[in-house]
C-alpha cells in the first residue's frame, strides 16, 4: 500500500484498512509506504487507538526503513522555476 496517510481515511475506510492489516498479521507480507511518521498516523485514521493497534501489527515482525533526502519522483526538476517556451514563434 502506497502513501498511507497522504489523504485522511473516513471512519469506515480506516476500519476496513485495520481489518486488512489484522487479517494479514502473521499470515502474509505487507509493504506500506507513507510520508507520515507513525506518531501522526492517528490524524489520518481519525483514531489514535486504532492507529496504534495497526502500527503494532505492522512493525511486530517488520523491517522498518526510514528514507531521508530528495523525493525520487522530483529528481532533476527545479521546483519554483517557471517553464520557458523554447518554440520558435516565427515559423
Structure characterization notes:
With 91 residues, the chain is mostly helical. 34% of the residues lie in helices and 0% in strands. It has three helices and no strands. It has helices spanning 11-24, 41-45, 48-59. Helix 1 (11-24) packs parallel to helix 3. The longest helix is centred in the N-terminal third of the chain and has 14 residues, at 11-24. The N and C termini lie far apart (49 Å). The mean pLDDT is 85.
Quickly describe the structure.
Helix content is 34%, strand content 0%.
List the helices and strands and how they pair.
Layout lengths: L10 H14 L16 H5 L2 H12 L32
Helix pairs in contact: 1-3
Strand content: under 5%
The overall strand count is 0
Amino-to-carboxy terminus distance: 49 Å
Number of helices: 3
Give the tags.
3 helices; 91 residues; mainly alpha
